[in-house]
Amino acid sequence: MVYVSDADAATELTALGPAGSAFDTDDDARLAAFYSYPQDLDRCWVRANMIASLDGGATDDGKSGGLAGPGDKALFSRMRQEADVILVGASTVRIENYSGAQMSLAERRERQQRGQAELPPIAVITHGADFEHDAKIFTRTEVPPLIVTSRDSVEDARSRFAAVAEVIDASGAHSDRVDVGVVLATLAERGLRRVLCEGGPGIISLLIENELLDELCMTIAPVLVGGQARRIAAGSGEAHTRMRRSHLLSDDEGYLYTRYVKDE
């Protein structure tokens, strides 16, 4: 017997157990089926891939990598393989010590068969382009990164990084700030429509506020971190965007891998 209040109808619950079809993370065809982008895109489709602890922390000891397990790392690699471009904020590049995307010969051939470049570039959103020249984003990459900055900073950034990166002006109404809408329009013009955003919280929040996030792939790590760990999205603006579940996966470690798509 289920008690139903006068004001509310009962909600049907589904138990997610071991009855599903299991497969290994090296089954490329199965993973591709779960994480391929929509076909024939005429605009950027923005996917965010983030991880959080059970208590909502986006970092462990200051870095998101501290939460990851083998399964999460495999899905991280698969999503990079599917993307035309990897979008990330400057703070995340510094904290996580980002380098360029690395892929095997087989992965490169698969991308070429889909009509993509062998490797996706890293596009870094930064208002001031304050980087060191020996950062891995410049020194450990086969593809020069895209430094996406403000109009006020673009000339200085080009004078400093022209030899190691392509610098792009992506300002909107404010010359000292990057406009995420302009960023996506610029990427779309270049044919980089399969966008994978890897954070940080400020970039994710901007995408949410401006209703530009098409899907969120969220890994829930079986870890408690407590303390002052940030959320996966942190900004001043708010939104209420309804999402629908695309799939849920799990593994023997207890990680939960979710994919939610904007409900339109």
From TrEMBL:
Sample GO molecular function, one term: 5-amino-6-(5-phosphoribosylamino)uracil reductase activity
Domain Bacterial bifunctional deaminase-reductase C-terminal per the UniProt entry, residue ranges: 45-256
Domain of life: Bacteria
GO biological process, one term: riboflavin biosynthetic process
Keyword entries, A-Z: NADP, Oxidoreductase
Keyword Electron transport attached: no
InterPro entries to which the protein is assigned, alphabetical: DHFR-like_dom_sf (IPR024072), RibDG_C (IPR002734), Riboflavin_Biosynth_HTPR (IPR050765)
Pathway involvement of the protein, from the record: Cofactor biosynthesis; riboflavin biosynthesis
Descriptive protein name: Bacterial bifunctional deaminase-reductase C-terminal domain-containing protein
Organism: Mycolicibacterium madagascariense
Lineage: Bacteria, Bacillati, Actinomycetota, Actinomycetes, Mycobacteriales
